[in-house]
Amino acid sequence: MQFTYYGHASFSVSLGAKHILFDPFFTGNPSAKGVDIDTIKADYILITHGHGDHVADAVVIAKNTGATVVAAPEIVGWLNKQGVEKTHPINHGGPVDFGFAKIRAVNATHSSGLPDGSYGGNPLGFVLTSAQGNFYYAGDTGLTMDMQLLPFWTRLNFAVLPIGGNYTMDAADAIIASEFIQCDKIIGVHYNTFDLIKIDTEMATKLFTDKGKILLLPQPGTSIEI
User: Fold this and answer.
1) Domain of 43: which CATH number?
2) Nearest-5° angle of CA 69, CA 101, CA 142?
3) Geometric angle at alpha carbon 40, from 142 and 133, rounded to 5°
């Protein structure tokens, strides 16, 4: 699997020939200033919730690529009104088989309002299981006991967790989350984009190392094999 980070909480994962883009936020994202969104590849776009720093470019990229957007029903309805035709509404429950992977929507403790002020439905995280590997993207969330359910469903190769605090978990809580989900390889997101979520990355990395865990913090615009 190849993980490409675009800054904040926007990234893509390649599973075989499929490109899955998560929470597309390029316009207004200071970490993605050099990214031409017309070059972004996506077969599927997964959206965790409706805040602008997660849906800013969803409409443009969905139309450019013809990707299927997977999100809460309320977000799907908002996208449909803007001319996005290929969508799949999802909510908490059993996994949905999309062929390239099974996707399970799981709980995230956050809020979800769309850019036009309308309700964005339940904030979600996603668990993807595939022949290439399995991973969890928590979305914007605080630490929640629900994370302890994940090991009942699958063994994770890695997990993508927010570490910036204020709106989400910080690094210390992300370590507890990694214990809950039984995964020691963590990619940190949702940090250092804005003043309210600035962190000491060296200290965060040391917190993980001291616990025998790996915190990966790829630079925006870079890809890693994982």
Assistant:
1) 3.60.15.10
2) 70
3) 55
**Plot region of 28 (φ>0 → left; ψ -120 to 50 → alpha; else → beta):** left
Q: What are phi and psi of 209, to 5 degrees?
A: -60, -40
What is the H or E stretch that residue 58 is in? helix 58-65
Segments forming the whole domain that contains residue 19:
2-225
CB 15 within 8 A of CB 132: yes
Q: Strand 102-107 and strand 124-129: pairing?
A: antiparallel
- Helix/strand/coil for 149: helix
Alpha helices (H) along 37-98: 52-55, 58-65, 73-81
Q: At what angle do helices 201-210 and 171-180 cross, to 10 degrees?
A: 30
In the DSSP assignment, the letter for residue 119 is: B
The HSE-up count of residue 119 (CA atoms within 13 Å, CB side) is 4
Number of domains in the chain: 1
Question: What is the separation of C-alpha 59 from the centre of its chain, rounded to a whole number of angstroms?
Answer: 17
The pTM assigned to this predicted structure is 0.97
pLDDT means over runs of 10, the chain (226 residues): 96 96 95 88 98 97 98 98 97 97 98 96 98 97 98 98 98 98 98 97 98 97 93
Collapse the DSSP code of 21 into the 3-class scheme (helix H, G, I; strand E, B; otherwise coil) and give the result: strand
Q: Which of 34, 30, 35 is nearest to 21 (CA)?
A: 35
Closest by CA position to 127, among listed 97, 95, 152, 172: 95
